[in-house]
User: What shape does this take?
Amino acid sequence: MKLSAVELRRISLPLVAPFRTSFGTETTKDALLIRAVTPDSEGWGECVAMDAPLYSAEYVDGAIDVIRRFLLPRLFAAGGPTAGQVAHVLEPVKGHPMAKAALEMALLDAELRAAGLPLATFFGATRDRVPSGVSVGIHESIPALLDTVAGYLAEGYVRIKLKIEPGWDVEPVRAVRERFGDEILLQVDANTAYTLGDARQLALLDPFGLLLIEQPLAEDDLRGHAELARRIATPVCLDESVTSARAAADAIALGAAQIINVKPGRVGGYLEARKIAAVAAANGVPVWCGGMLETGLGRGANAALAACPEFTLPGDVSASGRFYAQDITAPFQLEAGHIRVPTGPGIGSDVIPDVLEACTTWTETIRP
Assistant: This one.
């Protein structure tokens, strides 16, 4: 795919409500979009880096800088690499998987649009819709949390994920179980907020029959996760720790991951995400597709990934309205607890020009 130009576009989308996790509170989605222009088509990518390095070391300003100064020059010099070659071409630049993933996504979208092939078909997806779970942030009070969960269950979400942190863990989980019963699929996400010294506290979650506890310890603490898995009954799921298929294999071999949350942007792109899913499936480890508050571009691509046969647990592919009153694409709607997989060529989601322009805060076009 000969690149004629690459447009970097920064947008700002207000969230319908503040989203609080153990590492901070988001009220606005500050996102970097990539538009790859080729002689035959164009494709869109979305960088999932946040505006500050809190979830990971990457952040939007840093992604813009590394793309402009180091990644794009290599892609241009490569003379038109395919999406499958992007990771190899960019490998000499250490780190920055979210920035690399956005470029790969844009090129993959452009390639598939030129070929008239949907991303789901390219992935080998086996479903036309995926079960939808919802991520519920930390609230100011348990009654407020219960009201929020009740609303999402009424909308039809099939799985509830509660964000937790020290001081906000056992009691909110207990309250949700007592209010809504053992029938609902319930899991928790700590976003690295605990240490192995908190094992006894985390074991207090065992009686509630959770699907999993996601990333309780630091991302580089695989041995700690393996030890924690031996001390608690709730399955341990890794998120931030899994940065590649190799990292997934290591975590599984150490007994640190009984379940894996696959986030394409975190692991360097959708092609690496497929490899991670394959490694997990080969080892009998369930996977699900996580989310990073993506716009409709990333949401559609995530739905295509989640429709693959390896993804056996409900993921975070929620309706657009969960986060945005007005998305930059046609909204994804919840249908009987599921989200439909896009069927158009490429990622299958098209931007709405007027909406995109209204939320754009900066843009730059770079040519070879």
